[in-house]
């Protein structure tokens, strides 16, 4: 990013530094956020409409309890486990930077740890009442850790009706919960992936034994009045607004360009680790806050390990490199895979196999519209069918059936919803028809094990091609279009013919 000297001069006189709130706002970060935005790219008005639409879908007499994320440490005697984070917390790399729980962030835009929000459905014009419970500011702590949003600023900036200290959450729950017929709250224990109301108590109280004052809360949470919130939020999140689409396009642009430059950067004899770090550096340099997941940088036979993340062997001249990587930008993930030759030129066998996957992937992308009336499951079935046809056409000839393809050569699913989380589909039905505004990945692959019933020249080659696709009413938009994909473009990027610099 670069700014005109005038803009910089104006900034230096008007910008609040250090920041007064616990996250970027226009007053302190005008280079990141516009006056009407709550988080970069997403307006305050849009957050309001997300909440209103959620509350409209819930029955009368409903209360929503949203718990934010806790700070996690990579290693410490006191290990904070993100009890209420997204079910995808395992995919999120440990980070020194706090990342808010996804649903909490989607509904509030509030980006500080140790917070909770209560939404009470009401007949008011707004349709609900919203209360925040947060740590508030503490001058002594702020000297060390920087600003936290005060209760007053929280109300004004994030449009909370009430803003209270976190320690008053149990008392509030105790008085509110008995009055509601429907209590929407997500309680997830990552260790067991099973729900337990006791985990919410652990969050509220450092004392592992529920104290008597929590009996009322326990009773409410153990009753049939408690319902999961995640499925309702997942439905809203599955359709991306124009503003979300623009942020996702920016995220994919950053990752796609980084992939193209990483193709140029890669040289024979380079470690997968060096290649991975180059990609991550380019994403961070372009403004990405963190990787959306631990990247897969798999050279040669390592590509047959679908979730290979060791990234610590050497890429050799005759091998392919499979990179499955993406950045998170302004709260949204990107997820791209490319497979390119270390030498800069595909061998004949690599080219044949790559073409089979590429044709399959492009055919599937063409079906990504609401008008096509397909589901993710339909696309997956189609992917196995198309790939089988493609592989049978290869000159040396795979002697194949579709079931061999699905069992031995292409053992994973064709794609998933992507958005705030890398895998948004946990509460979405794979059989549901794709609709305009959804964003999914399309990522067929082929991984040939060194078995005698497969042609020898293809042994140990693993290829996957993955794009982020915005479903349109009549056609798809490829968000990750910056990453070269056609053979001529990939080879051109690797060899520098496209005029790309490695940095
Ligand atoms: Mn993916």
UniProtKB/TrEMBL annotation:
UniProt keyword list: Hydrolase, Manganese, Metal-binding
InterPro entries assigned to the protein according to its UniProt record, in alphabetical order: Aminopep_P_N, Creatin/AminoP/Spt16_N, Creatinase/aminopeptidase-like, Pept_M24, Pept_M24_MAP, X-Pro_dipept-like
Gene3D superfamilies hit by this protein: Creatinase/methionine aminopeptidase superfamily (3.90.230.10), Creatinase/prolidase N-terminal domain (3.40.350.10)
GO biological process, one term: proteolysis
Top-rank taxon, per record: Eukaryota
Gene Ontology CC annotations of this record: mitochondrion
Location of the Aminopeptidase P N-terminal domain: 42-194
CDD domains per UniProt: Prolidase (cd01087)
Family of the protein in this entry: Belongs to the peptidase M24B family.
Annotated protein name in UniProt: Peptidase M24
Organism of origin: Thelephora terrestris
């Amino acid at each position: 990013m670069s700014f005109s000297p005038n803009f910089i001069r104006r900034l230096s006189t008007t910008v609040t530094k250090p920041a007064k709130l616990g996250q970027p706002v226009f007053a302190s970060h005008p280079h990141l956020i516009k006056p009407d935005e709550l988080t970069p790219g997403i307006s305050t008005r849009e957050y309001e409409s997300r909440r209103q639409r959620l509350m409209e879908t819930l029955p009368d007499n409903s209360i929503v309890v949203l718990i934010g994320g806790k700070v996690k440490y990579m290693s410490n005697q006191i290990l904070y486990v993100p009890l209420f984070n997204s079910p995808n917390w395992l995919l999120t790399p440990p980070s020194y930077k706090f990342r808010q729980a996804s649903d909490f962030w989607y509904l509030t835009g509030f980006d500080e740890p140790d917070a909770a929000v209560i939404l009470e459905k009401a007949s008011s014009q707004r349709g609900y009442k919203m209360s925040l419970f947060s740590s508030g500011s503490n001058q002594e702590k702020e000297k060390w850790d920087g600003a936290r949003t005060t209760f007053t600023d929280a109300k004004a900036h994030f449009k909370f009706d009430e803003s209270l200290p976190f320690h008053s959450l149990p008392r509030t729950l105790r008085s509110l919960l008995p009055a509601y017929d429907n209590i929407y709250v997500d309680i997830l224990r990552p260790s067991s992936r099973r729900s337990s109301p006791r985990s919410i108590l652990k969050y509220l109280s450092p004392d592992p034994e529920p104290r008597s004052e929590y009996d009322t809360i326990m009773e409410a949470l153990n009753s049939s009045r408690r319902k999961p919130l995640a499925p309702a939020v997942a439905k809203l999140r599955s359709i991306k607004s124009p503003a979300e689409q623009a942020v996702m396009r920016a995220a994919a642009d950053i990752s796609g360009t980084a992939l193209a430059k990483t193709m140029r950067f890669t040289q024979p004899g380079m470690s997968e680790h060096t290649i991975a770090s180059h990609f991550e550096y380019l994403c961070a340099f372009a403004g990405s806050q963190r990787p959306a997941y631990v990247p897969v940088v798999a050279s040669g036979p390592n590509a047959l390990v679908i979730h290979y993340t060791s990234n610590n062997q050497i890429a050799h001249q005759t091998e392919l490199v499979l990179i499955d990587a993406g950045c998170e930008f302004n709260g949204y993930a990107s997820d791209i895979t490319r497979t390119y030759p270390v030498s800069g030129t595909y061998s004949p066998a690599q080219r044949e196999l790559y073409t089979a996957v590429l044709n399959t992937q492009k055919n599937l992308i063409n079906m990504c519209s609401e008008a096509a009336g397909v589901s993710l499951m339909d696309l997956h079935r189609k992917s196995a069918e198309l790939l089988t046809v493609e592989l049978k056409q290869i000159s040396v000839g795979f002697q194949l059936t579709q079931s061999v393809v699905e069992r031995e050569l292409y053992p994973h699913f064709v794609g998933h919803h992507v958005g705030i989380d890398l895998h948004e589909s946990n509460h979405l039905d794979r059989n549901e028809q794709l609709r305009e505004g959804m964003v999914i990945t399309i990522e067929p692959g082929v991984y040939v094990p060194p078995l005698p019933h497969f042609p020898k020249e293809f042994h140990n080659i693993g290829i996957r091609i993955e794009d982020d696709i915005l479903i349109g009413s009549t056609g798809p938009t490829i968000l990750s279009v910056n990453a070269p994909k056609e053979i001529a473009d990939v080879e051109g990027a690797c060899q520098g013919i496209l005029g790309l610099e490695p940095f």
